[in-house]
Design brief:
The protein contains 21 helices and 10 strands. The chain is mostly helical. Strands 1-2 form a two-stranded antiparallel sheet. It has a two-stranded antiparallel ribbon with strand order 3-4. The longest helix has 25 residues. The chain is elongated and about 95 Å long. The structure holds zinc ion.
Length: about 425
């Protein structure tokens, strides 16, 4: 039956239940002292949800629903009809409709969200994670078979995987999103072929992806504002207004409202919480993104390891020129940039040699870091001439290094990658070339 037919058929179900003395969920509306709701049912498309606050009241509403369906010749699909009891566990309780016992379930999928007895929504996040991972691996497989560029893979992740991971987050966003974050990090690491020691923020920086928790916060708050500035007659707005009043006078601490309050307050925007009509989505999104960039910058500034990275990385996001560099060369460049290599500056860390004593084995007086080997070390002077323009290694400095690594010329970058490959292999394979 189509949803429209269903609505036409069931248009008087609510008044029928009311007239037949069914009890309802009672919602006290603080904001408009004289308005009350009676909530018997939720109808969406061709789904019906019956609600009650006790076993006897529920039996009553089931009975009336059964009568109503009989009256109008509406058939109930018993195999799909389930019962969920929230809160305290009830033992040995059974419910029947048309003499058929209905199954009591511990969780139920409704409109893409999985409801569980404890009223938490972590199960939905777990399911989104599983679905998102499947989509991600499909992209990875396809990228391998068809040789998709890195940019293309990032685009597919954004347009296919992210919507799956974030589905329904407007509702469950207050829960811990760590497992979703892991999927995104796995993806970044995989497509850039970087190892597990690579900082998460660098992975995001290289791909231009934003932490999941920021995306979630933006959507939760945006949705909340949409409800709070929507028509005052809408049920959903009235319900949320009730929740808000209960929250503000500490009668009931809704996790969802608390999350919105906390998120806005932490970002110095509590005024939006108190007056949703003043909300500016762009401003809020920008604030969260700025904070992410700030956090990454602080992290990079406090780390010796990323000295070189900071100098040569021009901007947030994937550098498209790298799509034109053939694998595996491009991966050598990636690894080299972020410190996934065995140059003395990295291996020195393993035996805790202080940073300023991680000398080049060949030169002794100079630190064996990325800059040293690409621009200075005599060990590679012949090869350097072959692969790099003399402008860069004659009186080299970080400024010239940045210029070289940020060139948008395929030939120049390819030759740089070839040189880097030799350096990286030399250290990986025990100082031979
Ligand atoms: Zn040296």
């Amino acid at each position: 039956m189509s949803s429209l037919l269903f609505s036409i058929f069931l248009n008087d179900l609510e008044s029928y239940l009311n007239e037949n003395d069914c009890d309802y969920i009672f919602v006290r509306d603080h904001t408009h002292m004289h308005v009350f709701f009676k909530l018997f049912i939720l109808l969406y498309a061709d789904d019906t949800v019956l609600l009650a606050t006790s076993i006897s009241k529920f039996r009553k509403i089931m009975k009336e629903y059964e009568n109503y369906c009989a009256l109008w010749n509406v058939e109930i699909n018993f195999s799909k009809s389930k019962i969920m009891i929230f809160g305290t566990q009830r033992k040995n309780v059974q419910f029947h409709m048309n003499n058929i016992e209905l199954e009591i379930v511990k969780e139920y999928h409704y409109l893409g969200i999985t409801f569980t007895k404890n009223r938490r929504l972590i199960q939905t996040i777990k399911e989104n994670t599983a679905k998102g991972k499947r989509a991600m691996f499909a992209i990875i497989t396809r990228a391998k078979n068809e040789g998709l560029t890195i940019s293309c893979q990032i685009h597919l992740f954004k347009t296919i995987v992210l919507p799956i991971l974030l589905y329904g987050c407007e509702v469950w966003g207050f829960e811990d999103v760590g497992i979703l974050e892991k999927v995104q990090i796995y993806f970044c690491r995989h497509i850039l072929k970087l190892n597990k020691t690579t900082q998460k923020n660098i992975l995001l920086y290289e791909t231009g992806l934003i932490p999941i928790n920021i995306l979630v916060k933006c959507r939760v708050v945006k949705n909340w504002v949409k409800i709070m500035t929507g028509k005052t007659t809408k049920y959903v707005r009235k319900m949320v207004e009730c929740l808000l009043v209960y929250y503000l006078n500490t009668e009931h601490k809704s996790n969802w409202i608390h999350f919105i309050d906390k998120t806005l307050t932490e970002n110095g925007m509590r005024n939006f919480f108190l007056n949703p009509y003043s909300y500016r989505h762009d401003e809020f999104t920008l604030r969260l993104e700025d904070q992410f960039h700030q956090e990454v910058n602080n992290q990079l500034n406090n780390s010796n390891r990323t000295l070189f990275y900071r100098a040569i990385k021009a901007k947030f996001g994937f550098e498209e020129i790298l799509d034109e560099i053939k694998p595996p060369l491009v991966y050598y460049l990636m690894k080299f940039k972020v410190g996934n290599h065995k140059l003395p500056v990295e291996t020195g860390k393993w035996d805790q040699t202080p940073h300023n004593e991680r000398y080049c084995h060949h030169c002794i007086e100079d630190i064996g870091d990325e800059f040293h080997y690409v621009f200075l070390c005599p060990l590679f002077s012949q090869l350097r001439k072959k692969y790099i323009h003399p402008y860069f290694y004659n009186r080299p400095n970080m400024y010239k290094a940045a210029l070289l690594f940020q060139r948008k010329n395929r030939k120049v970058i390819t030759r740089l990658c070839m040189f880097i490959k030799i350096i990286v292999d030399y250290f990986n394979e025990g100082y031979r070339y």
